[in-house]
Design a protein that fits this description.
Pfam families: Lactamase_B_2 (PF12706). With about 240 residues, the protein is an alpha/beta fold. The protein contains 7 helices and 14 strands. Strand 10 (about 150), helix 4 and strand 11 (about 170-175) form a beta-alpha-beta unit. It binds zinc ion (2 copies).
């Protein structure tokens, strides 16, 4: 199982960067988790879009979905050039923020996400958990039967997440604010302290942090995370984690 970071910023990218997007690959399955601004260019750089089995969207905020219409153009081009004949499965939250999905039907199989097991593609299984966020948002857990990967999506701190992500090999957690920002992030995003506590309580084997505000120093955020979860690391575009 390999995770490649296509975008790690929010809600806008750092210069040359991209917002939330991650490519998860196993021997047989390839899925794109979120499709923020700049995701498609990085998918072409570090992934193989013709192999894409599914796109999974955590929620409809634009820093996670801005490139979905651009991805549609790419998938349509793959169909036109005969590079793919199968629709891409598109898993999405059925919430008021979602756009008109009819234009996606031609090249995507539309599948609303439900809490619990929602994805079963080749050897990859996925589960969703409801988050605390301004929009309906999900966290995900995926396994190929060997390794388990968890992604928080955008969320405030919820104790149930420690249970949902219990024992994952890698937890990719949003880390939007410093400890001092908790009055701003509450119920919507995780601070350094909260994402570290989540990983610690979930006994996650590794913690990767993401969803950085470009005006913050990522290494300073990481210092705070490591006070609670010493082995944590910060992701960047192009990073591949096996
Ligand atoms: Zn959001
Ligand atoms: Zn976000």
């Amino acid at each position: 199982m390999r995770l490649t970071v296509l975008g790690c910023w929010a809600p806008f990218p750092a210069p040359g960067g991209a917002t939330s997007s991650y490519l998860l690959e196993t021997e047989k399955a390839t899925i794109l988790i979120d499709a923020g601004s700049g995701a498609v260019a990085n998918l072409l750089k570090w992934g193989q879009p013709e192999k894409l089995d599914a796109v999974v969207l955590s929620h409809w905020h634009e820093d996670h979905t801005a490139d979905l219409p651009i991805l549609r153009y790419l998938v349509r081009s793959l169909f036109f050039t005969g590079k793919r004949t199968e629709k891409v499965k598109l898993f999405y939250p059925e919430s008021p923020e979602r756009p008109d999905m009819s234009k996606y039907q031609e090249f995507f199989e539309l599948i609303p996400i439900k809490e619990g097991e929602f994805l079963d593609i080749k050897e990859l299984k996925g589960w969703a958990v409801t988050n605390s966020h301004q929009a309906l948002s999900y966290g995900f857990k995926f396994t190929n039967g060997v390794k388990t990967f968890g992604y928080t999506g955008d969320t405030g701190y919820l104790p149930k997440h420690a249970e949902f992500f219990y024992g994952v090999d890698l937890l990719l957690a949003e880390c939007t604010g410093f400890k001092k920002d908790s009055s701003y992030t509450q119920n919507n995003h995780l601070t350094t302290e909260e994402c570290a506590l989540l990983a610690k309580n979930a006994k996650a084997k590794n913690l990767a942090v993401t969803h950085f505000w470009p005006f913050y120093d990522v290494l300073m955020l990481l210092d705070e995370v490591r006070e609670i979860y010493p082995g944590a690391f910060a992701v960047r575009e192009g990073m591949s984690i096996v």
